[in-house]
Design a protein that fits this description.
By secondary structure, the chain is of the alpha+beta class. About 45% of the residues lie in helices and about 15% in strands. Strands 3-4-5-6-2-1-9-10 form an eight-stranded mixed β-sheet. Helix 7 packs parallel to helix 9 and helix 7 runs antiparallel to helix 10.
Length: about 300
């Protein structure tokens, strides 16, 4: 599919680059089903190329959101960011124009976006160096402005710019940082670690959906490692999810130890369904949420 896309983009004079989790995971020897492709073009130019590559005979206005489904794929278009998302054959493709983002007054999404043809400006809006590695669809050359490949090799997690600035832009990056560190056994760069301690209360602004989601990710990372050594980072992760107003106290530590040991002992996240064990403040996990997450893990490992 990538070769078809590149052919159609080339014919339209569009430069395309893979970026984000697909590149990161491939460099780590992991398979990924999610492909993020950034383009030096606006939707009016690249949408016809995508439709041609996927042999889709559909038409939609670019000023409004749009959804299309058939027996083989699902296409979604988000007009504000001019993003086309396609799910087909077990894979997910996101096509995004290069852009700059300005202001995050709600700590989640930008107040203003500016489209650009400059890949380096696009890289500045990303969170961590390991997610800002670009690979050209045309010649497979890497563009790595923040040395993300080096950070992967040296097992280090760092932000693309000042860590305090990046966490204040988007509070979800607090939970994402801990997720990546746990999942890929990365050491937090000193400035990032300090920024997490300084800004952890910003995570309180996030929705329960995000908190629950990342709690399950943290525990699945622990389960995958099959060991309880060096759980300090996981303790920090759980404290951010459950208790924003105070540091870990003795009661929380006891609950944490009990919970993590049971997850490891039972070799399953389903232990979380016992409400007697999950009595932390702020959240409750339902059977549906746990089972859906486990089903997703089996279909598409994190």
């Amino acid at each position: 599919m990538l070769s078809k896309l590149q052919t159609c983009f080339f014919e339209s004079g569009i430069k395309a680059f893979l970026v984000g989790g697909f590149i990161r995971d491939s460099l780590l020897g992991k398979h990924s089903y999610d492909l993020d492709i950034v383009l030096d073009s606006r939707a009016k130019n690249y949408v016809p190329a995508i439709l041609k590559a996927f042999r889709l005979n559909v038409y939609f206005e670019l000023e409004t959101d749009f959804i299309y489904k058939d027996d083989f794929l699902e296409l979604s278009y988000f007009s504000r960011y001019e993003i086309v998302s396609i799910k087909a054959g077990g894979y997910s493709f996101d096509f995004v124009p290069m852009r700059c983002e300005l202001g995050y007054s709600n700590l989640r999404s930008p107040d203003k976006i500016l489209f650009t043809k400059n890949l380096y400006l696009d890289a500045l809006r990303r969170d961590f160096s390991i997610n800002a590695i670009y690979k050209s669809l045309k010649d497979s050359k890497f563009i790595d402005p923040f040395e993300g490949r080096k950070d992967l090799k040296e097992k280090r997690l760092k932000t693309v710019l000042d860590a305090n600035f990046k966490l204040k832009e988007d509070a979800l990056r607090i939970l994402r940082a801990l997720d990546f560190a746990l999942r890929f056994n990365l050491k937090l760069e000193k400035n990032l670690e300090s920024a997490l301690h300084t800004n952890y209360k910003l995570a309180a602004t996030l929705s329960n959906f995000h908190k629950k989601r990342y709690l399950l990710k943290y525990l699945s990372s622990l389960l995958a490692k099959k060991k309880s050594a060096d759980t300090s980072l996981l303790k920090q992760a759980l404290s951010l999810v459950y208790d924003f107003e105070k540091e870990l106290d003795s009661i929380f530590k006891l609950k944490f130890i009990k919970l993590t040991n049971l997850v490891l002992e039972k070799d399953s996240l389903e232990v979380l369904l016992d409400k007697r064990l999950v009595e932390f403040e702020g959240l409750e996990l339902s059977l549906k949420e746990i089972t859906n997450f486990i089903r997703e893990l089996k279909a598409r490992p994190l």
